[in-house]
Design goal:
This protein is an alpha/beta fold. The chain has 2 domains: about 200 residues, 3-Layer(aba) Sandwich (Rossmann fold), CATH 3.40.50.300; about 140 residues, Cytidine Deaminase, domain 2 (3-Layer(aba) Sandwich). The protein has 14 helices and 12 strands. It has a 5-stranded parallel beta sheet, with helices on both faces. A 5-stranded mixed beta sheet has the order 9-8-10-11-12. Strand 3, helix 3 and strand 4 form a beta-alpha-beta unit. The two termini are about 25 Å apart. InterPro entries: APOBEC/CMP_deaminase_Zn-bd (IPR016192), CMP_dCMP_dom (IPR002125), Cytidine_deaminase-like (IPR016193), dCMP_deaminase-rel (IPR015517), Deoxycytidylate_deaminase_dom (IPR035105). This is Deoxycytidylate deaminase. Its EC number is 3.5.4.12. GO terms for molecular function: dCMP deaminase activity; zinc ion binding. It comes from Penicillium freii.
């Protein structure tokens, strides 16, 4: 089994999502469900509905009572017990909706097999779904206004607000369809069991480092970051901005960038070094050698490309396009350095 077979938490806005999750084990879905099982807490938080919504609280409670009974061996008294159970069986596939506060979530996020998924939908659609569930169980559905009040409390209450949890989600699913089949198709496309959601491959890892380097950029035109790598080890990093001892671009150091000239205009007067240039200068010719790979979050410009070719970079990997990608590709093709976009 792979690393991606651990606990998956669906951080949802309303309890009707549990019904969808429980459908994951329907026999007609076994082809794509891949064996996820629901882990639950015996005592779920009852604070999601404000006191003024007693009738709505009763409706939600009645709906839960009419659902399938819990499996005793997959029901736990507290979140720590649930997490311990899943940790010992991390190679199996689990899902829970019972993480109700940030403290509990932070403990789960420490585990390398845990993926937090948020599920959201328009409030009017969720009200319709909840009303349909009420009718199916011969209960009177709530008025929309009352449901919206419940929703606002559930999301934004300072103690139990779910918005503070969903902000930490590593994957967001917007379930705006009224068809379960479309939801199932979307889940299949997402491929929740993909290992790279939990541990990025080398290309993704170094591209994330390049994007992080870009956060140090002081260029007024565009943030760009670059990482030079050989044998899966970082040789150097770079980001764009004015050279040392010059005033930062975002402090007026480069008049050209601060004028807001259009892309490609006035480049001969630009005082900013590009991220690729900085990384190449930092590494030096001796450290680059054969097999060096350049990761840049933006496709290099043609000026940087000829320097990349000259120092003998073996491969270029980038994530965002630029206005001269085809010229860059041709130059690197001739210099026998493949370029790939991820």
């Amino acid at each position: 089994m792979s690393e991606a077979n651990g606990v998956y938490c669906i951080s949802e806005e309303q309890r009707e999502i549990e019904e969808i999750i429980k459908s994951l084990n329907d026999t007609d879905l076994e082809g794509w469900v891949q064996g996820f099982q629901l882990l639950e807490l015996a005592n779920k938080s009852q604070s999601h509905i404000p006191e003024s919504g007693d009738d709505l609280r009763l409706q939600a409670s009645e709906i839960r009572k009419k659902e399938d009974p819990k499996s005793p061996e997959l029901t736990f008294q507290d979140p720590d017990s649930l997490l311990d159970f899943a940790t010992k069986r991390w190679q199996e596939r689990w899902v829970t909706t019972d993480i109700a506060d940030a403290t509990t979530l932070d403990r789960f996020l420490l585990r390398p097999f845990f993926l937090l998924v948020s599920v959201d939908a328009p409030v009017s659609l969720r009200w319709k779904r909840f009303a349909d569930r009420c009718w199916r169980r011969q209960l009177d559905p709530p008025e929309l206004e009352k449901f919206v009040m419940w929703n606002d409390h559930n999301l934004y209450d300072k103690d139990i607000g779910r918005v503070y949890l969903t902000d930490k989600a590593q994957l967001r699913l917007f379930n705006s369809s009224s068809s379960l089949e479309e939801l199932h198709s979307a889940l299949e496309t997402l491929d929740l069991a993909d290992e790279q959601r939990l541990r990025p491959n080398w290309d993704q890892y170094f591209m994330q480092l390049a994007s992080l380097a870009a956060q140090r950029s002081n260029c007024m035109k565009r943030r760009v970051g670059c990482v030079l790598v050989r044998e899966s080890r970082v040789i150097s990093t770079g980001y764009n901005g004015t050279p040392r001892h010059l005033q930062n671009c975002n402090q007026g150091g480069c008049p050209r960038c601060n004028r807001g000239d259009g892309g490609g205009a006035g480049l001969s007067t630009c005082l900013c070094l590009h991220a690729e240039e900085n990384a190449l200068l930092e590494a030096g010719r001796e450290r680059i050698r054969e097999g060096a790979i350049l990761y840049c979050d933006t496709c290099p410009c043609l000026t940087c490309t000829v320097k990349i070719a000259q120092v003998g970079i073996s491969e270029v990997v980038y994530s965002q396009g630029y206005n001269m990608d085809s010229d860059v590709s041709q130059c690197l093709f001739v210099s026998r350095a493949p370029i790939n976009r991820i």
